[in-house]
Amino acid sequence: MPIIPARLTTLVAAGALLSTILAAPSAQAADEPHPVVNGGFTLVGRGYGHGRGMSQWGSYQQATEGRGWQQIVAFYYPGANLQTRAASTIRVGTYGLTGATARVAAEAGLTVTDGAGQTIALPLADAGVPITSWEVSLPSQTGTATTATLWFRTATARKALRSTVSGKWTFTDTDGSLTAQNASGKNVATYLGRFTGHRSGSGITPVLATTLEDYTRQVVPWENYTNWPVQAQAAQSVAARSYGAWYIAHPRTSLYDICDTTSCQVFGGISKETSQTRDGVAASAGRVLTHNGAVVRSEFSASNGGQIAAGGVPYTSVAADPYEMRLPTSVTTWQGSVSAAKLQARWPQVGTVRRLVVTGRDGRGQCGGRVTALRLEGSLGTASITPSQLSPLVSGWKGNYFTIADGPDALSRDVSGDGRSELLHRDPNGHLMASDASSGTAFAAPRRIGSGWGGFTAVFAGPFTSDRIADLLALDTTGQLKLYPSRGAGWGTATVVGRGLTGVRTPSLAPGLAAGKPAVVAQRTSDGALLRWPVTGGVLAGSPSVVSAAGWAGNQYNLVFAVRDFSGDGIDDVIMRDVNGNLMMARATSTGTLKTPERIGTGWGGFRSIVGVGDMNADGRTDLVARNAAGETRLYPSAPTSPGRFGAPVPLAAALGILVA
């Protein structure tokens, strides 16, 4: 599940245009070292789950595009055939919901049968006192190894009705449904089927036996969103039914075929059923996937991140998933973090943690594919680790399709979702160009990733939507601000998120100037004031306000833009250039105001554009890129030991074009 394209680095500037393209996937060729930044590591991932077989979100997208369930399952399981399966029974171990107990709520029509076939109609009261529940448990006194006792409860007592040496009791109801409870008496599921408590050594194994069709009804609402289109529900039904049928032929234990948790597939009863889930099950009734005549173990996961993972079987696809790439990145991407201290506690032999290195990928998908191996490096040594060892330590982990961001600020200009900034610029013909970062201070030759961006007065990047991957915002000549949400390997449909942005210059995105929430800022041309538009509900909210700033010089500034933390105080800053060529910085406060500007450089008057590009050198602070009239471009990395100051400039390629802010 996680990750995306190759590394780009974003160059932003006023009056430019954007769109992004990502490098073609390639197999992992070299180690990817990542130093500790701000006490740990930030992971940027794609997908949710193992990524094998069907993507549930991809299925949803296909259904919304009008594809039928047969087409959906054929896309994800191209080597399988659809066949109709005869009616059969499946046994589900319900430990996940009920725990190690077989307990049901008392209700009319409830009967119980022991292992010898003797059936008892269960009463609703004991001597006039209402019975609340029935359960199968151990006898109160020592019996045989197969003795199981039938107990009932009232509001004040627990009593044994009788015992059997046959080893089990099975509850059924005349209406076919049962209300199962956990050991504390809480109702946890409404099941269709027969509920058995098996004596297993010193405990009870709870098993629900039901038809394969009723089993599918009780899985689909728990594996899909219940309001999704019927065709997506039908595709899920085929996958769930086939998965269950495979376990009938390959039972997990002698007492049950399959479990009820995500270790198998979630089985939760009928309480979440909707008309969509019922219609989906009915539309594909009895249909299962087979290969060479045998039903297949049809794996699926929530999202594959745009690349189906290898399943090691001949009937699933191992290909890019274009339907996933058309989904919002809010459902296909994730961000996680892990502290260096937590890694050191897990692998103390490495000493003080210094770097986390990706040493292997599967070669399928963006950035070399899913991570298969890593190395932790420290002051005393190294440790080879696997993604499965890393996963429980990472907050927000959703799978092994990820990259490691070189500092949180890299994400503020990461439009591809690969954990790095992208350097974007526009050439004189309106083409959007991208230069991939080849190291912390260098870029590869630019390549064209889009065209037709010449009509915008400004283009800038930043995390506008909820997924934290940077999006593109473009201001047209009428004052409309358009959002181009990042899809990692392209852009979503443009939407207008603001109007009336006329009489302004150098707009940029600045979360730190709106109490940590997204905001757009721009300089008013009439008086040089800094205006702020807070973002509410995904659009610019109302009229702009003037940002309060002590000592603000107004029209003495001919370039103004917001950057993520340059000063090292953890809050966004505003960079200005005055008419004398001085570069100034105004630190933001936690309340969204600006402190008195301070000079951070001189001799900047000859640059046509200056932009923040995120954290290129992995020191946790943003860096700047500047372009002069001749098209010569320089990277100004933040000084590692002097927040708010620069290290030595690094020449970049000539004629990069107008930078994107």
What does this structure look like?
InterPro entries: FG-GAP, Integrin_alpha_N, SpoIID/LytB, SpoIID/LytB_N. Residues 1-29 form the signal peptide. Pfam families: FG-GAP_3, SpoIID. Residues 202-291 form the Sporulation stage II protein D amidase enhancer LytB N-terminal domain. Keywords: Signal. The protein has 661 residues and is mostly beta strands. Mean pLDDT is 87; it is low at 1-28. It has 3 domains: 32-47 and 332-405, no CATH class; 54-88 and 213-329, no CATH class; 422-659, Neuraminidase, CATH 2.120.10. The strands form 13 sheets. A 7-stranded mixed sheet has the order 8-7-14-17-18-5-19. A 6-stranded antiparallel sheet has the order 13-12-11-6-15-16, with no helix packed on it. Strands 37, 38, 39, 40 and 41 form a 5-stranded antiparallel sheet that branches. It starts with 31 loop residues before the first strand and ends with a strand. The protein contains 10 helices and 50 strands. A hairpin with a 2-residue loop joins strand 39 and strand 40. The relative contact order is 0.16. The longest helix has 20 residues, at 230-249. 11% of the residues lie in helices and 35% in strands. Helix 6 crosses helix 7 (275-283).
